[in-house]
């Protein structure tokens, strides 16, 4: 009788802990999928904004910040390609990124080509 209770207890603990492990793994996968989708959306929106600025004849050669919030947590910035030392200077970066209001950036060249998204 005690063996049955012990077996049941061990089975219950295993089942419960196994569910937590699965929940954690699926939660991590969902977060990774959302992060990947956010990155793709930020790149697309940044490129669209850049193209609109070019069609409105805006000069992008000075590397302006195009958006401090292209999507939540992401900025859209223009830089040189290849990157120039001035691109690393804080005054030449989006203020939201400098002030940690955004954690990620999309960086395009003056022709709206992707340099980096991080």
Number of domains: 1
Oligomer state of the chains in this structure: single chain
Q: Give the averaged pLDDT, no decimals.
A: 85
Straight-line distance between termini: 59 Å
Percent strand: 15-25%
**Helical segment count:** 2
Alpha-beta classification: alpha+beta
The SSE order reads HEEHEE
Give Rg in angstroms: 23 Å
Query: Could you list the spans in which at least 5 consecutive residues all have pLDDT below 50?
Result: none
Give the total of beta strands: 4
Percent helix range: 40-55%
Q: Going across the major beta sheet, what is the strand order?
A: 1-2-3-4
| Global morphology | elongated
Biggest sheet overview: 4 strands, mixed
Show the helix and strand layout.
Elements: H1 2-55, E1 65-71, E2 74-78, H2 95-98, E3 104-108, E4 114-117
Keywords, separated by commas or semicolons:
118 residues, alpha+beta, 4-stranded mixed beta sheet
Structural account:
- The chain is α+β, with helices and mostly antiparallel strands.
- It has one domain.
- It is built from two helices and four strands; from the N terminus they run αββαββ.
- It has a four-stranded mixed sheet.
- The longest helix has 54 residues, at 2-55.
- The model has no long low-confidence stretch (mean pLDDT 85).
Summary, kept brief:
The chain is an alpha+beta fold. The protein is built from 2 helices and 4 strands; from the N terminus they run αββαββ. The mean pLDDT is 85.
